[in-house]
Batch of 3 targets.
Target 1
Amino acid sequence: MRSRVRAALVAGTALVGAVLGVPVASAAEPVPAPGVGYDVSHPQCDDSLPADAAFAVVGVNGGTATTENPCLADQWAWASAASGAGSSGAQPAQPRAQLYVNTANPGEVRDQVTTWPRSGSNRYGLCDGDNNAACSYEYGVARAEDDVRIVLDTLGPAGAGDAGIGAADLAGLSWWLDVETMNTWQTDGAQARRNNRATLEGMAEHLGSLGSRVGLYSTGYQWARIVGTVPPFSSLYELDSWLAGARTLRGAVANCGDEPLVGGGRVVLAQYVVDDLDHDWACAAGAERVPGAPG
């Protein structure tokens, strides 16, 4: 999601750009207006971060679902100092500091990992260590529990001061589930997509049970490959979307008008990349217009 490798691949692969509908930059590309946010994680550990962030989303993990971002505390302190302002017009303000987590489902290679669950019971039935929806759901719960542990251990008030996060602060905290093909997912047809969905449901429901707000980050192309169509009875169905894939602010604004990843949600953020740094535009409820461009 936030790696220099990802940005290079997107920039260098015309076929992927065509599939994702990546816009082409133009000479008339406007200067970002107030209200632009950023998202950062371990690839930005040694970078100077922008001082003009309206909001920021910080990665909890170190690139995969079972790792930790070594710069989480410093980046969270930077995010907490964001202005929290929206831009002019209809663009809404965003929570100053938000989190995102990597997601995955290694059920097809469960013999190669130590984190695959061996027990548990949920709406999908009993988890017995096999590759099924019940164990996929338990895997998602376990990943979310670990992410919460990382956040509380790293960002506790004792270590993060006024920006610290205690258990009571989880209520209302914004989390985004990062769903990308570069991580490990099941791939064998409709059952695989159901299992992948079960993992995300486990993560979303655990975070939601703490009072946190949960959203989904992906592109339409990647979401279709990993999860597919989400039915209305799924706990993912009404979650909001943060869409990736744009290379310019103009493209991000256009993506605000795309279909959300799930039928019951809205597109509320759109990401674009400038100079290898992820920028984020908060989508207005109405029609979008590029800031600085003629009406």
Note: Strands lie at 37-40, 56-59, 97-102, 121-122, 125-126, 174-178, 213-218, 240-246, 267-274, 277-282.
Target 2
Amino acid sequence: MKAAQSLAHLGRYCEREPDCTFLQGGRCARAAEFADPVSECKSLHPVPLINTRSVDGSVVIVGALVEGLQRINQQTEDDLAPWRGRHLHLHEAEDIVRRSPARVISVLGPYDAGKTSLIASFFLQMANGHFGAFPYRFASSRTLYGFQDLVDRANRWTGKQGEQIVDHTPKEDGNQGGRFLHLGLRPANKQDDRHIDVLLSDVTGEWIESWSERVDADAKRRLAFIPRSDGFVVVADSAHLIGNDGMEMDAKIDQLIRRIVSTAGRRTGRGLALVFSKFDRVIDKVDPPEETRQCDRASWGELGELTDALWSGLDHAKQAGFNVGVFAVSAFPKPLEQGQPAGVMAPFVHIMKFADAPERRARVFLPIPDDADCFQTMRRWKDEP
């Protein structure tokens, strides 16, 4: 009976949610909101099933799902959705930005700093409804398969040192600039039905290091989204910073921060979050400071003493008008079934706080001419004591 019900679930489709992932992938992107997404989601409708019999006599149940998938396969390239499901390239992200007030968050850092692990852990927190102080809840994703790949890989991690938690972002050939993961979010207040698109950059560390050292034509194309970004998350490996070659890494992070400042443009008030990643590896040497002292260099122990260049870069960002925050994060301190991440939501809370605050410009007051008509002079009467 259960097997028949399970097959019957495949004979459902979503006609009111254009971004529904159930039809193509068999996974509900909003599974965290329902105990049983298939039976509880009001957007799913049953469709008639067709029984056929295979050559060996076994019964095969075929529903309208098959016909729907065949129609998708027969569509021309112009009819297909403008995204691939695993990640978005720059031109695909531009389509989203043009159609909605999307938030673009640049997640930047050297190779193996933990950028992709941070994004994967952030997605897991959101998808499971553990958004804490973050002002939004998970609603959808156009790169759900990309997130699923990251989660599946992280789920196989055994906790051994040196074993890769998630796959490194591939170093692509550079023909297309940028690489993004997409989240569709709704405000935590369920009375507010807005839908917010958030694009998280997932660019390989080699590109970022090359861009921070020297901006050539290729680097400009690959990171062309930097001036449009609404916030920046700079990821630095805390264990690397206090290791034997920590001075070199300190200089790289400083150089990266200064490159962000010089490239980001004149738009002030954006958030910049410095993330000391993999903090579980240095917790025996450095105690994370209280929230009110996180921007105080002296409160970070060895991480403050050994990183002159990094803190100089943060001071430079503050002077340029960035709202700087510093955070200790352990995206995957233990295998998924053994422990929870620490501090993952805090840098994104910081970034969205300023990304959601529109830049306010000074009001322009036009002078009132002496020979103004009565309607214009009413402004003078209002301003006079």
Note: The longest strand covers residues 180-187.
Target 3
Amino acid sequence: MRKVYLDYNATTPIHPEVATYTLPFLHELYGNPSSMHWAGREVRPYIDQARECIADMIHAHPEEIVFTSCGTESDNHAIKGVAYSRRDKGNHIITTRVEHPGVLNTCAYLEKRGFEVTYLPVDSYGVVAPDAVRKAIRKDTILISVMHANNETGTLMPIEAIGAIARDAGVLFHSDMVQALGKIPIDVNKMQVDLAAFSGHKVYAPKGVGILYMREGVDIDNLIHGGHQEAGRRAGTENLLGIAAFGKACEAMHREMAEERPRLERLRKKLLDGIMARIEDVQLNGHPEFRLPNTLNLSFGFVESESLLIGLDLAGIAVSAGSACSSGSPEPSHVLLSMGIRPEVCQSALRISLGRDTSEEDIDYVLDVLPEVVGRLRSMSPFYTKK
């Protein structure tokens, strides 16, 4: 059976260059990077090199890169760190209703501890209005947190405009940029971002490594306490293999992005056009233009996404019904609901995300299989009448 993987927003396979590069870290390069002896000195340069590669990709300084275990940890560190370090200045946080659970659940945690959170609405495309952010700022606002690219729909937020608003108001600005890294250019200075979260396994590095970008001069409370690692900002023995892999993956993706981005846009367009031509009652969720090059979120009328997922999986096609972090929840997507989409339409949605291994043949195969699966499921629905 042919296997087609179209769930790159959930995780990515290891880049071939990364796999080759990290092999020595499973054998001879095993030292603790914080050790002063030869084994530690031998591996420390690899962490420094990774820090430089990642900083170069997002137009940051190497000392502004803090290695973590994942994007969710980075989100937690940024939001809790600002909240507790600036509590004497205020207790108000601004975010949106469509954020990743790593942001929303952290804000909910802080609400139980006396902080106030404003959850801004989005329009029908899933975009928050910069003016709404400006109007929500109060004298006691200490943080604005708005994601760069939505993990479910691929919709891009007006990060530059929001960054300018935050800077003018003297409020720290955090962004979950996990889905944007490696897919579209990122310039944290141009965007005026103070704190940003990234994750290795979204850019063809292993799971278990992330980044918190922390602008120079920004001082926040630590999330993890212990040793002196990461200039005292994140305790714990460094994940040498993961960090080295993340750096190499960023180096590769930075080099490939100029060609890969238009290729993915072309394949995404071919898939969308093919689906719309072959299947009726399909709705595109998210902004039609301002979106990631690799992501589609589509609702298939009169079909439940779980049944559609199973039908496609039986044909060897791997997609998702939304965020992997929300998998298992019986509730409709909070992202789609916040866009004003009806619950029954939300529950018929699929997220299809392409990657560097996606081929024309993969798209052709999906366009052959998907109409048959949707048709079979609709034939069992008492509510569906073919037009």
Note: The longest helix spans residues 240-278.
